[in-house]
């Protein structure tokens, strides 16, 4: 499926984000780097929800913070409406952040417990000099009503709200400046299941009403399936598969995607009993010294010698649609079962020793 420039809101092009590891007391020396994001390319279209899934530590949240401008990238560029945000001035970034907001994972830690809710939601108006006094209070109360909160609770503290209500406060704060893109960093993972459904339904209603675009990060595949138009699967800093949500859930092509889907909970007990679980061997390798070639090869049930030395490109494979991209030399075939397979390539070491530094 071809995508025109007007349809693309965000374009991530060859983005790397590495965090240096330093040792020493007086003279600190860089001895290694954490490869949090390592060459990611993806696009976010206007009005859609792009789901990003993967195990903890795969780089989902770091990528989200790069897209919102909270982390400077090590290499690559991020285009928002065609403008490179990685080269923006401080003033340019401030204007950019009016169009891009974030909903954080922890509804407790993301709100200052010493400040009243009205002040927290009104911060964007104060920072950007949009409204003050009675006008700001009126706007904040309208936002509270929009997300299902009682406007009369304007002067309450966060501790006086439940977990789901606190996340609604975070949603209201993100909506204050009428952004074009909202990055949802696991916004329901800290909530009870019944409250999760309420918050997800709220986000869907707001998207339809306000024409929002979402990047939705989660590790719960059932949640991502429910809310996402397209899905990108990340492993150890890289996107290993990307496709329309229905295509990926019906026929995952990367062995890692197939393993994730096999571990997802199924509501139908008969279907759950028939499902075959793909059990991955070993732990996720260290991002300090990721494996050569395909990063998934030490745990992959289909790995061969080529996977150790040659990194696969993220391209369409075989008869897949043009927008179904897979980074795998030997993708999963239709009706192929990986449940009884084991990793074919052993990993030598996943925890590299850091060199000693003279102090």
Draw up the topology in text:
Blueprint: E1 8-23, E2 29-45, E3 49-53, H1 60-67, E4 75-80, E5 83-84, H2 90-96, E6 100-103, H3 117-127, H4 133-146, H5 163-175, E7 181-185, H6 193-210, E8 213-217, H7 221-227, E9 230-235, E10 238-244, H8 245-250, H9 255-263, H10 269-274, H11 305-309, E11 315-316, E12 325-326
Parallel strand pairs: 3-8, 3-9, 6-7, 7-8
Antiparallel strand pairs: 1-2, 1-4, 4-5, 9-10, 10-12, 11-12
Helix pairs in contact: 3-4, 3-5, 4-5, 5-6
Explain what the structure shows.
This protein has helices at 60-67, 90-96, 117-127, 133-146, 163-175, 193-210, 221-227, 245-250, 255-263, 269-274, 305-309, and strands at 8-23, 29-45, 49-53, 75-80, 83-84, 100-103, 181-185, 213-217, 230-235, 238-244, 315-316, 325-326. Helices cover 29% and strands 21% of the residues. The chain has three domains: 1-23 and 32-99 and 179-197 and 204-228, Rossmann fold (3-Layer(aba) Sandwich), CATH 3.40.50.300; 114-174, no CATH class; 252-353, no CATH class. The chain is built from eleven helices and twelve strands. It is an alpha/beta fold and 359 residues long. A hairpin with a 2-residue loop joins β9 (230-235) and β10. Keywords: ATP-binding, Nucleotide-binding, Transport. This is Dipeptide ABC transporter ATP-binding protein. Residues 21-261 form the ABC transporter domain.
